[in-house]
Amino acid sequence: LMERKTRVKINRKEFMLAKLRKSCSCTPKKLKNFVMDFLPVLQWLPKYQCKEYIWGDIMSGLVIGIILVPQAIAYSLLAGLKPIYSLYTSFFANIIYFLMGTSRHVSVGIFSLISLMVGQVVDRELLLAGFDLNDDVPSALGDGSLQNDSHSNRTAFNFTIVGMNAECGKDCYAIGIATALTFVAGVYQVLMGIFRLGFVSMYLSESVLDGFATGASLTILTAQVKYLIGIKIPRSQGHGMLVITWINIFRNISQANLCDVITSAICIVVLVTAKELGDRYKHKLKFPLPTELVVIVAATLVSHYGKLNEVYASSVSGVIPTGFIPPKVPHFSLMLRVAVDALPLAIVSFVFTVSLSEMCAKKYAYTIRANQEMFAVGFCNIIPSFFHSFATSAALAKTLVKTSTGCQTQVSGVISAMVVLLVLLFLAPVFYSLQKSVLACIIIVSLRGALQKFRDVPARYHVNKVDTLIWVVTVSASALISTEIGLLVGIVFSMLCIIVRTQRPRTALLGQIQDTSFYEDDLEYENLSPVPKVKIFRFEAPLYYANKNYFLKSLYRLTNLDPNLEAARRKKYEKKEKQHLKKGDHTTVNGLGIRETALQLVPNQTDFQALVVDCSSISFLDTTGVNTLKEILKDYKDLNISVLLACCNPSVIDSLKRGGYFGKDSGSMQEMLFYSIHNAVQFAKDQK
């Protein structure tokens, strides 16, 4: 007999007060620890091993910086903003994560999925404000200035409607929406860090995240097709954007710009070939080929000297001014408009950052602090939002490149930020003639990894059919409805799958493995011996209100006996026999004597005298679950069949005790509860 340990009762009030006093106290040591925890760079930078780490950090920083510049310019198309804002975002995110991040290898900055989510909100608000979403409306920024100008779009919006006094053009309003959205998302992330709500990420399973990323990749791909072929179609908004965009593309396919089509074909062939060669010979290359930069430089030179914009009307990036715009506080009135949109953005940004941080930490044998990562990515959004930047996250592709090029610490992030700063201060105007079709090619080729997930569907289906179904549903919802709703659908559907699996779990009758004290499912294994006069029932899920009926139905079906029906049948026979006895007839209606009838009342189905319930897979019981077990205990007892419980965990035992399953004083507990199935079977055999 195993005895439970007696728990020491804790005075919860005293415990909470002591914890509160400790949290609210402020000592120099505690203040120092707080600052060191809040800025992890103060812990690891003094211990930086310069000779060992510096060259790897410089190399990876330069490579990421070279990749970051063309990607930042390209992803501005997704966000519906000017390229300069993408460069600002890449610069500030790297600096802030260097100070606050706990991962040594993650590359934080502009990310295609986050840019898409920002762009969808920006486009919606521009439409509501009455702006034209046509990308090619002439801009009044020819002098390199980014000052507000009402002539930058045909429709000017007066901000007095939303509590602002100045009249502002399309570009000004777009970045105002983006910074407000970014600020609110960052505040959400910081609040989640303060209240330790990182557990929210647990509800985003791998299948949901993969499906969300793949569905969003289809949306990104669709949004770039018009740039690939050089047609002018309205930017679709709302649900079903993917389908509407493809309809508009095919309706306007005759207007395709031949120059853009040829440029796109050449760029895609070059980029894909370089990626494939890089993947094939990556073990021989010390760092990945800077193909995107080469393509952008070559395409810019060809476009500039070939006058592709003037001669062939090919759409180009336009003016990218140098320097920094004075910081500006995001408008509170705009924050109220995007507060709901910021929540999924905050969650997705955090989840991708933490999952990549954990992946790198596991690979290189160090630890991260998920809560600090929440603060880091939160302030990577809050602080840059004052400097005309938009939302950021960790990016898988750049993180993998960073680790493969010898990165040791986040010093590499500072090097990458310096490369971006060089472009911001001196080189940005060089990209004036860069065709948008080239940027679209870079975006589409960068989606290669996410789109290749479709090839993994058969293998995924072979491993787990339910996870594959979750992936398919999330992909479909993200692509065909919208990215935010797709994420919500994926989370809800994955939870429903868990609920359904606990509502209808596997059930089985067990047989004994010959010459052992172990028992297994007699439908799954051969050569199992049935235990005479004993039925062993296994239920592979928690027993709670949602699966109570399934538990009872499965039990009655597998044991081939419903105690309620059997009790009713016996009462019916007893009633008839009493009626015959009152008439003085000592033979029953079926011609048998009373003694023979009494034997007949016990049907052939009750070929067992004990029911053993294997509770090893029952992780918890709610009130309904306890009452269900009490119900079967009573019902089978009326048929002279004992019910024995085996392999209950302490939580289940406590629930049974509190529910009065073992009686008032739990005196019969030793005859009803056993720590192994074999003990219960032996006890049942010894019963008369």
UniProtKB/TrEMBL annotation:
CDD domains attached to this UniProt entry: STAS_SulP_like_sulfate_transporter (cd07042)
Signal sequence segment: none
Membrane among keywords: yes
Compartments (UniProt record): Membrane
Coiled-coil residue spans: none
InterPro entries on file: S04_transporter_CS, SLC26A/SulP_dom, SLC26A/SulP_fam, STAS_dom, STAS_dom_sf
Major subcellular location class: membrane
Entry protein name: Sulfate anion transporter 1
PANTHER family: SULFATE TRANSPORTER
Record-annotated STAS domain positions: 524-684
A GO MF label: secondary active sulfate transmembrane transporter activity
Annotated keywords: Membrane, Transmembrane, Transmembrane helix
Transmembrane annotation, as ranges: 53-77, 106-122, 173-195, 207-229, 249-273, 334-354, 375-397, 409-427, 471-500
Membrane topology: Multi-pass membrane protein
Origin species: Buceros rhinoceros silvestris
Recorded superkingdom: Eukaryota
GO CC annotation: membrane
Pfam family membership, one: STAS
Organism lineage: Eukaryota, Metazoa, Chordata, Craniata, Vertebrata
